[in-house]
Amino acid sequence: MPFSGLTTFGTAFLSKFECSQMPHSLLEHITLVDTPGVLSGEKQRTQRAYDFTGVTSWFAAKCDLILLLFDPHKLDISDEFKRVITSLRGHDDKIRVVLNKADQVDTQQLMRVYGALMWSLGKVLNTPEVVRVYIGSFNDKPVNESAFGPLGKELFEKEQDDLLSDLKDIPKKACDRRINEFVKRARAAKIHAYIISHLRKEMPAMMGKAKTQQKLIDNLAEEFGKVQKEFHLPPGDFPNVEHFKEILSGYSFDKFEKLKPKMIQVVDDMLGYDIPDLLKNFRNPYD
């Protein structure tokens, strides 16, 4: 099982992590991961015993598709759900939104519900692109036609077919996605090297090291800007400033490695030549 990396979240999480195996042909290609319900209202104040957002981020980085589930009666995005959605940044192409139990409201109410959902998501996702929303009643019961009539039933069936085709495409796209993830990590490693070497270069030779280090951490966003301008790097590839600050506080900058241009050149050659050649010769085994 590919879950050994979850041991870093401790026994508090592992004691709640369960796995179930079923004899089905679809499950030979797909693993479904279901998260516990996101807390809202008063329940948010009772802290979970493990890092819920961290676990979600771990799965988000490794999965092929992320389904965010809503129903017409629970459209509010709680603080915990907001943190979870924020932790999915960088994986926007994997996110699909499912508006479930849509046959529990009539057509007019559904229009209002859909508009309210898009408005709520727009505030949290912060992307100009409109996220794909599947509308339907995804269970084994027949659609409630009394609320929508035959047109509503046809819409729900089309939406369900679209969602299922998205799920069926996962094995086909998995190989491409692995290469994309590899490229993403290579670019992140390259930017990491530039940042680390820049921070070391800014450190004094003898006196006032601790003071300078703290000043660099406090003004990390400005330092990122300097690195970006000096090496003409895209700002979207830089890590989260606040998260990077937390990690840096446990290290001594003067012990960081110097930049090795030859190694950067090797990564650039790999991204510029080797990966495109690999994609040209690559044949999808599922086609």
TrEMBL record:
Q: What is this protein called?
A: EH domain-containing protein 1
Q: Which organism is it from?
A: Citrus sinensis (Sweet orange)
